[in-house]
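Example record

Each entry pairs one chain with its bound ligand, pyridoxal-5'-phosphate.
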Amino acid sequence: MFNNNTIQRFTGIETPFYYYDMEVLKQTLGACRDASLKYGFHVHYAMKANFNPQVLKAVQAYGFGADCVSGNEVIAAIENGFGKEKVVFAGVGKSDREINDALDADIFCFNVESVQELEIINELAAAKNKVAGVAIRINPNVDAHTHHFITTGLDENKFGINTWQLNDVADALRKLKNIKFLGIHFHIGSQITDMEVYRSLCIRINEIQDWFEDHGFSVKVLNTGGGLGVDYYNPDTNIPDFESYFKVFSKFLNVKPGQEVHFELGRALVAQSASLIARVLYVKNGQKKNFLVLDAGMTELMRPMLYQAYHSIENLSGQEPVGSGHLAEDNQSPFTINRSPVKYDVVGPICESTDCFRKDVDLPQSYRGDLIAIRTAGAYGEVMASNYNLRNKVQSVYSEPIA
Ligand SMILES: *Cc1c(COP(=O)(O)O)cnc(C)c1O
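Structure tokens for the complex follow.
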């Protein structure tokens, strides 16, 4: 991702910023599209992972639909060229305004998370003389074997409808005239790397779709959600293994004639395409600890602080061959800069003790002014940035000129 030209280019740009490698993004999107088309699967991009307009434009160009979790995302998806017949809308707390916006946009499907929500969608659709397509989000009680902060498919989680409530769902579906049952929806968590988890999900989906068919409902859509993980430890292994992922579903999901299989991938499509680029502001050498204080913190990338997430951290300046002309700001000669390995706690400038990207990071000895890359930051990065401490909005830089 970084060669001497990119690093040279960064030298003149104010940090911190997100750097998007559009080539990596396109390779990833192409690989996912090709692998899904092999099985005729439908993929919706989970916009919440990254709704940077340049990213949306690239994703949309590859023919993906959009998976939205707010009314504003529904509106943004359509404004950015996603076809309304490819927009789905999930979320455990859809407000009346958001439901109305989605009804006005004539989206494909609401992924509904409670019986009460079904009743409200029905009521609001009736007021507009419309019929809303719905899929029932079911909590399959499958353990995603991922970090408990990002597990969503267990009985204890707030998402979806539990299977013991399905009779109530069936009664409501029969009674409510302004909703049309399209199928069933699942999403069990994020950063899932164990394909066995998806096999378990398939088995549960087969049981649950049989339940619906046995109760007189025709299940057209099987939406398996998203959650495919990426390799945060090897940021240059750019492409997640979409082939193996889709293969599990084609093998274990009982797809009947006329059924459509839908997916909602977020992270896997965009994570590897971006890095957060920051500079070392200060180096604090303590008796027990050495700290690198960066000009980026939890206001630019919150994942380590929010989910205890791992990101690979590199010193881009430290990778330059000795004598390449890099001059650290303390004016040591480039020929004498010591780049021997040191362990640092890499921290941000925000007034919170949790504002630490990682402890005990092995880096070459680092200096004020060095460029630091925090890798695999394309998903749940820029979109979670805040202006806490009245920080500036984080900027974005692209590998290609933007159209
Ligand atoms: C967040 C989310 C996704 C995408 O999850 P990833 O882990 O980014 O693939 C898919 N579906 C729903 C309903 C979501 O909330």
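The first strand starts at residue 17 and ends at 20.
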